[in-house]
Amino acid sequence: MKMRFAFLLFGAAFFVQTLLNSWLPGKLLVDLDLTILIALGICYDEEELHKPLIAAFVFAVISDICFNQHVGVTGVALVLTVLFLLAMRHLVNTENLIFDAGIAAAAVLLYNTIYWFIYYLMGAPYSFLYMLKRLPLEWVFDTAIAFAIMFVMVNRVINARRDRYFR
């Protein structure tokens, strides 16, 4: 993935995410940066992942500047989530979409836990139970969006090995 395409992708995700979060009812928040980064982290190689990670970090900091109390929390949580994804790629078979959905669900839970923990360390009055109260719906939507992105991307990114032996 080229750097300019990564910036266009995460820039569009930033604007779409802002519109979606203002239109969705209640406290439901959809995190498109996270879902795109989860899909890219599972489908792309480690060598190709640094460009989307840089773009996601830049737009996470812009999102923090525009909407959050502290700057950099979202970017740090995204980077730590990608490190988790890279570790899971070596431990679990990522060619199976069911395992990928489980890894995506675990990554969403880890991201929200890291995000809450950093805010807790900075003195936010929110308890862990308060974070867990809004998590189930967000967890389902973010995992479903990441799974849909992976389902679309898996045929483009992973080329099957063509062996002449089985002709």
What labels would you give this structure?
167 residues, 0% strand
Strand content: under 5%
| N-to-C CA distance | 32 Å
Q: What structural category arises from helix and sheet content?
A: mainly alpha
Shape by Cα distribution: globular
Order of helices and strands: HHHHHH
Biggest β-sheet: count, sense, barrel? Answer: none
Low-confidence parts: none
Helix percentage: over 70%
Mean pLDDT over all positions: 86
> What is the gyration radius calculated from CA atoms?
17 Å
Number of strands: 0
Count of helical regions:
6
How is this structure best described in words?
The structure is a single chain. The protein has six helices and no strands. By secondary structure, the chain is an all-alpha fold. The two termini are 32 Å apart.
Summarize the structure.
The protein has about 170 residues and is an all-alpha fold. It has helices spanning about 5-25, 30-45, 50-65, 75-90, 95-120, 130-155. α2 packs across α5, α3 (about 50-65) packs antiparallel against α4 (about 75-90) and α4 (about 75-90) packs antiparallel against α5.
Helices and strands in order:
Blueprint: H1 3-23, H2 32-43, H3 50-67, H4 73-91, H5 97-121, H6 128-157
Helix pairs in contact: 1-3, 2-3, 2-4, 2-5, 2-6, 3-4, 4-5, 5-6
